[in-house]
Amino acid sequence: xxxxxxxxxxxxxxxxxxxxxxxVRLTVAxxxxxxxxxxRRIGYPEEEARIIVDQLVxxxxxxxxxxxxxxxxAIAHDEKTRQARRxxxxxxxxxxxxxxDGGNNVGYISVYRGAEIAIAKARATGLAAVGVYNSxxxxxxxxxxERIARAGLVAIHVASAKPRVLPLGGARPALGxxxxxxxxxxxxxxxxxxxxxxxxxxxxxxxxxxxxxxxPEGTGYDEQGRPTRDARAVLRGGVVPFGGHKGYGLSxxxxxxxxxxxxxxxxxxxxxxxxLFVAVDPxxxxxxxxxxxxxxxxxxxxxxxxxxxxVAEIRIPSERAxxxxxxxxxxxxxxxxxxxxxxxxx
Amino acid sequence: xxxxxxxxxxxxxxxxxxxxxxxVRLTVAxxxxxxxxxxRRIGYPEEEARIIVDQLVxxxxxxxxxxxxxxxxAIAHDEKTRQARRxxxxxxxxxxxxxxDGGNNVGYISVYRGAEIAIAKARATGLAAVGVYNSxxxxxxxxxxERIARAGLVAIHVASAKPRVLPLGGARPALGxxxxxxxxxxxxxxxxxxxxxxxxxxxxxxxxxxxxxxxPEGTGYDEQGRPTRDARAVLRGGVVPFGGHKGYGLSxxxxxxxxxxxxxxxxxxxxxxxxLFVAVDPxxxxxxxxxxxxxxxxxxxxxxxxxxxxVAEIRIPSERAxxxxxxxxxxxxxxxxxxxxxxxxx
Lengths: 346, 346
What we know:
Chain A contains 13 helices and eleven strands. The first copy, chain A, is α+β, with helices and mostly antiparallel strands and 346 residues long. Among the domains of chain A are: 23-77 and 322-345, Orthogonal Bundle (Hypothetical Oxidoreductase Yiak, Chain: A, domain 1), CATH 1.10.1530; 88-196 and 256-284, Malate/L-lactate/L-sulpholactate dehydrogenase, NADPH binding domain (Ribosomal Protein S8, Chain: A, domain 1, 2-Layer Sandwich), CATH 3.30.1370. At the A-B interface, strand 4, strand 6, strand 7, helix 9 and helix 11 of A face strand 4, strand 6, strand 7, helix 9 and helix 11 of B.
């Protein structure tokens, strides 16, 4: 999930979300209670509901509207939710690694467990690799990388998925949308960079199909492998990687890293979901706790770069999202009344 | 260093390099002796000459002409070669990590040492992180990642550098060309993906300046921060990241990972050279030696993707380079006679 670093922004001082008719403004506490109660009513234990909603509210605070509480409705109506689930469990481990069977639980839970185990192991040994398989949608990768960075560790996190993306020259999808994410502790607060390797997020394709809007030229292909801007046709086909052969190569590498996370163990397929964390205590490489200060200095120096005419600010990855989060914590989260009513009706 | 996965190719069967007037065709053994002898004459000990030339010949075999033996001339004439050098040494380590002072040696040597230490530590502990600082040009990252993959390990390798790349909205460089590279062991031979995060390799800018060719529109800026296609002006300015905000974010993340490799320890600057390896024994995550087989299956499946009309083959990262290497091992390496004469005159 990635909104970029140069997207459009609200005017300084103006509320980030307008109170238009048909919307409801909730405090963080109200939004959290709404989400947790809905999840408990569809069978999620209290702790799992807390874990899922903590991310969804954070996504909403950071400005990722469709990754917020509406996802509870998606979870409720996903057929996987009705399939058998087993508790998340470690199936293989060493002092510095763990392989985790997600038990067909939604990634919000299993990948959260993976991040927690990566933090614990990296704190104990200095360096950890953790893989999670037999799971699916994990939401916003920056959420996990930020948790790891706030624990004082450097995070690399990738997620492979089932085929949605065409390889270069291909007429059918062979790779997932395969995001990559980095998290860094810094004396001035964590820095996180998160990107997908597809030209569009799959959620965008679904949204465009839902509202009947055309996709950007050259991004989508139908199930016959023909280029099309019709998002509904692309849902049965796929999208191209971002950035030509570089995006294709990155996507391929992330699919391979997904195998390291156990992707092929879920259904015997090498093109499947796999979530990998590498967490590093910076002190094992540059001792004396200097990394967070150096990181803050890097941020400061990049921000101080002389600017092109008309550019107000050089922005650092995650800066916009974290600023918006601070504001929305005070201003509240605006939700469509229909979403609130649907959640209350679960 | 990256030539992409969809570049132009020689006709099947035709020699990869034409024997045009002014060129010399050498066997691998002849090219190796030529390079090693030249390096020994400018003061490199036998083992260092062997390490440097092993990569340069491999680069030439894989089709990266300017990354081959001509680099010996660049090393000979680089002012850093005349500056004091100290032996490469480990300055801090744990069972799973090492921080290496490159002693102002060229990266061909210090980063090679880093890769060797990463292999040894990952074999011993399952997982290793190694950083190299106080060094510079290390050549082709895929060379190191392939060595790690041939040792049965998964490799992640990034290299930060001094500022050549403008951040989004910036008028001056603040980031290095910052490549990222992945290596995977596979039952059908290693797979390596290597890319720069700049819109152009710095070597391309130097080459274009040398031959007086214009840079692609929108890639370069002069020292005043004004867009220009004049490569000589861009040598005093910088280039933009590839792929907009995604390339910028990746470049930023790699600059930060360079800090983890000790970049700021060389000259007290956070924007400097740092070479980081993470090496993982796949068995610590997916035990039983299954990873290389799964990897070969992933390659096979992606290659078997139905193709767009007119596309002869779906290519996998590193496939073209490794195929060319096999052919050039038989056909030999073609060098400009002037390069050969200059090497012999060192």
